TrEMBL record:
Superkingdom classification of source: Eukaryota
A Pfam family this chain is assigned to: p450
Family the UniProt entry places it in: Belongs to the cytochrome P450 family.
Record protein name field: Uncharacterized protein
Highest classification ranks of the organism: Eukaryota, Viridiplantae, Streptophyta, Embryophyta, Tracheophyta
Phosphoprotein among keywords: no
Length: 367
């Protein structure tokens, strides 16, 4: 007996049956969460329409309306935002293990060697190993103390430059960024690679001071942008905002510099042989990479990713923190006067303040 149905009907039937089956399996039993208040999301885009050019300010304005904890939806993904001291404690201290991991984004993929750094790597053996490495080796009290002379020299150079610029308007952040970059590159890379154009032995240009500072600014920007493809994955390939193209370009530029750094350090290790002593953090990372007992092998790309983290994280954050501290002091003359009095009383005016003086400076001055 011949079938009276058209030949495509069976295909449609299979598709419908499959759809109903998947809905029955995966649509049933989904937990219903009691989410915090928040704006109603639109289909597909969620609440992305409420994000302006500066998302952190947009979110701050929304928090005024919906409270210190609110729910948003960025494309396909639900987002819970905490915006108070209590909420920060809740997420970062009380439930820190639950929120340790980070979502995979284009920035982590393209600018940090496919999540090989400390910032974007997923929580797990690799991340825990990196954290232990930082605590016991890279940032140990003994190692940081060994770099005190570097910090002292660069701070004195900063004061010399500021004295030379006295009497005219200056952009303090530029000076603070330069001193932070000099300190970090000497601690991490072993020397100030960026005082002049960096070139290979063959004469090929690696980077210039201006280009390197641009790379750092671009790295911070691209790691903080709201990339639409991260929120709506099926649009990722379109790169609607052009961010991924910029990330790929930046990655190539940074890699060219970091390859040069690693090659130079490996050459010194080979040249000195058994007498080799680690002088900087890249040396320490390369020694870790040679350790056969590591739980997770630290590859060359991991060394470069960690190095990039150390340079970027230690430069901008330090400069911005000092800039804000000085800004707050200038806005509060009474606090500025107390700080000056404390320094005059404890240190005097006959010498510069050193790191060893910090324990002698109380947190408040007597009234």
């Amino acid at each position: 007996m011949e079938s009276l149905l058209p030949p495509w009907a069976s295909f449609i039937g299979v598709v419908l049956a499959t759809g109903l089956f998947l809905r029955a399996v995966f649509g049933r039993g989904r937990p219903v969460y009691n989410l915090p208040p928040g704006p109603k999301p639109w289909p597909i885009i969620g609440n992305l329409n409420l994000m302006g050019a500066l998302p952190h300010r947009s979110i701050h304005e929304l928090s005024k309306r919906y409270g210190p904890i609110m729910s948003l939806r960025f494309g396909s993904f639900p987002v819970v935002v905490g915006s108070s001291v209590d909420m920060a404690k809740f997420f970062l201290k009380t439930h820190d293990v639950a929120f340790t991991d980070r979502p995979k984004t284009a920035a982590g993929k393209y600018t940090t060697y496919n999540y090989s750094d400390i910032t974007w790597s997923p929580y797990g053996p690799y991340w825990r190993q990196a954290r232990k490495m930082c605590l016991t080796e890279l940032f140990s009290a003994k190692r940081l103390e060994s770099y005190e002379y570097i910090r002292g020299e660069e701070v004195r150079a900063l004061l010399h430059d500021l004295h030379g610029a006295s009497g005219r308007v200056l952009m303090l952040k530029d000076y603070l960024s330069t001193v932070s970059l000099n300190v970090i590159t000497r601690m991490v890379l072993g020397k100030k690679y960026l005082e002049q154009e960096v070139a290979t032995k063959e004469g090929r240009k690696v980077t210039t001071p201006e280009e390197f500072k641009w790379m750092l600014d671009e790295l911070f920007l691209l790691n903080g942008v709201l990339n639409i493809g991260d929120s709506i994955p099926w649009l990722d390939w379109l790169d609607l905002q052009g961010y991924i193209k910029r990330m790929k370009k930046l990655s190539k530029m940074f890699d060219r510099f970091l390859e040069h750094v690693v090659d130079e350090h490996n050459e010194r290790r080979s040249r000195e042989g058994a007498s080799f002593v680690a002088n900087d953090m890249v040396d320490v990372l390369l020694q870790f990479a040679d350790d056969p007992n590591l739980e997770v092998k630290l590859k060359r790309e991991g060394v470069k990713a960690f190095t990039q983290d150390l340079i970027a994280g230690g430069t901008e954050s330090s400069a911005v923190t000092v800039e804000w501290a000085i800004s707050e002091l200038l806005k509060k003359p009474e606090v500025f006067a107390k700080a000056t009095e404390e320094l005059d009383r404890v240190i005097g005016r006959g010498r510069w303040v050193t790191e060893k003086d910090i324990p002698s400076l109380p947190t408040s001055t007597p009234s």
